[in-house]
Amino acid sequence: MEHSNNKFTKQEKELKQFLHEDPIPGLTQFEVDTLTQRVLGQIPKTEKKKWYQWQPAYRIGITVVSILIAVSFLITDFNIDNNENIELSELESSYFIDMEDYEYEEMVVEAIEVGSISESDIIEKLLPVDKDELFDLEDEYIDEDIDSYIEDIDEDEADRILRKMDELGYPDLQEV
Amino acid sequence: MESEVIKKAKQGDRDAMAQIIRNNQENVFALAYRMTGSREDALDISQDVFVKAIKGIKKFKGKSAISTWLYSITANTCKDFLRKNKSHQDVELDNVFLRSQIESPIDNIEIKDRRRLVRDALESLPEGVRAAFILRYENELQIDDIAEALGKAPGTIKAQLHDAVKRLRKIIGVEV
């Protein structure tokens, strides 16, 4: 029942008392539950809204996020394509190397390219560079193309590196 | 709190719909019971009221309490029901008075007769006046809220209540 600050006159109170001669029957919990179920049973379930049915603020937000994702994807995709092109050209050049002219340096380069050994391994483990010095020069070495660095080493140095790699258990470079 | 539940119900949240039904079921049932004098009819009307309300919840603007809005739907649903079941409204005040006089002495009126007297007295009021009377003296609504629920001017409601009290006091003055 409503709760209010109503003030009733004596006559009105008599009328209220008169109504109470026929008290309103209470509802059982079962009746309450049944009524609720019957009502809800007649209410069609709301289908999940499509994205275009959402409120304008959501739509704007989703559109902005979608654009950002698309832009970032395009940028990333573009970069990947460039990288792939570079890697392909490098691999092509290495596969077209005449086996008769296979030099130690080229074997080291190929070992790096096919992933048998990392550039950082070459720098850290095989090249005669002091650790402290390496720390200072690390960025420079890693940023540089290791191929160009290796090209500068002579045949004896390359031979030494390959032997060292063999001792360290890297795959037989003849099988690479 | 109530506005949050209504907002969720508008979005199709069935738990929120169930909560609205449970919170208002007693008031809706009470008005329907007083309007019809029948427990079964009041239950059926309550179900119709909540189905209409939940289906049309988006039309509820929140300018008044949802209970007031539900009273409005209940009063109209009861009117429709009573029009379709004419026998409910053919009792005249004079008939009620005469019947009570003839059937039993005032002090020996059995409980069921007193209940019958209340129902007959209420049924003797025109539907719109009856709804106003019940909302005022059973549900204890303010005049302005009754006016809003029944779509009438507060002055009209006051006049109707004044008339209803006057007419029903004829019965009270003799029987209670």
Q: What is the topology?
A:
The complex is a heterodimer of chains A (176) and B (176).
Chain A: H1 10-19, H2 29-41, H3 56-95, H4 104-113, H5 119-126, H6 131-143, H7 146-151, H8 155-167
Chain B: H1 2-10, H2 14-36, H3 39-55, H4 66-84, H5 93-103, H6 111-123, H7 127-137, H8 143-150, H9 154-175
Walk me through what this model shows.
- The complex is a heterodimer of chains A (176) and B (176).
- By secondary structure, chain A is mainly α.
- Among the domains of chain A are: 10-41, no CATH class; 97-176, no CATH class.
- Chain A has helices at residues 10-19, 29-41, 56-95, 104-113, 119-126, 131-143, 146-151, 155-167.
- In chain A, helix 5 (119-126) packs antiparallel against helix 6.
- The longest helix of chain A is centred in the middle third of the chain and has 40 residues, at 56-95.
- Chain A is rod-shaped.
- Chain B contains nine helices and no strands.
- Chain B folds into two domains: 1-85, Orthogonal Bundle (Rna Polymerase Sigma Factor, Chain: A), CATH 1.10.1740.10; 91-176, Arc Repressor Mutant, subunit A (Orthogonal Bundle), CATH 1.10.10.10.
- The N and C termini of chain B lie far apart (43 Å).
- Chain B has helices spanning 2-10, 14-36, 39-55, 66-84, 93-103, 111-123, 127-137, 143-150, 154-175.
- Chain B is globular and about 50 Å long.
- Helices cover 76% and strands 0% of the residues of chain B.
- Chain B has 176 residues and is mainly alpha-helical.
- At the A-B interface, helix 1 and helix 2 of A face helix 2, helix 3, helix 6 and helix 9 of B.
Count of distinct structural domains of chain B: 2
Helicity range of chain A: 55-70%
CA-CA gap between termini of chain A: 89 Å
Beta strand count of chain A: 0
Q: How would you classify the helix and strand content of chain B by structural class? A: mainly alpha
Q: Note the main sheet of chain B.
A: none
Morphology of chain B:
globular
Computed Rg of chain B: 18 Å
What is the average per-residue confidence, as pLDDT of chain A, rounded to a whole number? Answer: 66
Unreliable residue runs of chain A: 1-5, 80-101
The succession of helices and strands of chain B, N to C, reads: HHHHHHHHH
**H/I helix tally of chain B:** 9
Number of helices of chain A: 8
Low-pLDDT runs of 5+ residues of chain B are 88-105
Note the main sheet of chain A. none
